Amino acid sequence: MTSTATPAASARTTVAARRVRRLPDRQTTDRLALHDLLDSELVGHLAVALDGVPVVVPMGFARVDGHVLVHGSTGGGFALRAASARLPVVFSVTALDGLVYARSLFDSSMNYRSATIQGVLEPVSADEADAALIALSERLMPGRPAEVRGTRRKEVAATRVLRLALDDVVMKQRSGGPSEEPDDGEDHSSWAGVVPLERRWGTPIASGLTPAGTPVPDSVIALTTRNAPSDRLE
């Protein structure tokens, strides 16, 4: 499942970024910035046109090397149909980092990072399925796979992992305060600035069938107590 971006892929990324017309100064082709965004968010939106009808579904995902991994049921689902028909899809991920309060509604904005990935979903081969499911689980619930029973064969058979190459990507981002100048004609006695958005995990709640006094597992403790400013999700 290892994959790295080829020179051709990097070229496509650059070409894709040049399609940005609105506020092109906010575009970036920095691969590390893309990886940071994908590694700090847990949910993206997968879009495809099926039978002439647009469909968009939020999905948990994980980045593994040069691909985004998603999964679904082998019993159906639009993602599997899109992969089987080799239809072009779009996968979008956005992180909202704060609201930007300017001295007018027109100039107010958001601090954000967003990426739109275009391509064709590829099924992960059967011999890679276990590793792919573990990679997804480790991304969404770090450390949890080692604490629970192994995945049963029928569960693996009922699940299909798909991947989308990070070859054709458009990424935009904004940071910093409101656009302002000393001579912009605005009343500077009116407050302007940024309200950062911070997220954190809450106190774990045991299920109804979990016996009282059952210790909270290490993976949950690690998730709810970590405090790393570089992590967008705390």
Automatic annotation (TrEMBL):
SUPFAM superfamilies: FMN-binding split barrel (SSF50475)
Region of interest: Disordered: 172-194
Highest taxon of source: Bacteria
Species whose genome carries this gene: Agromyces flavus
Protein name per its UniProtKB record: Nitroimidazol reductase NimA-like FMN-containing flavoprotein (Pyridoxamine 5'-phosphate oxidase superfamily)
Gene3D superfamilies in alphabetical order: Electron Transport, Fmn-binding Protein, Chain A (2.30.110.10)
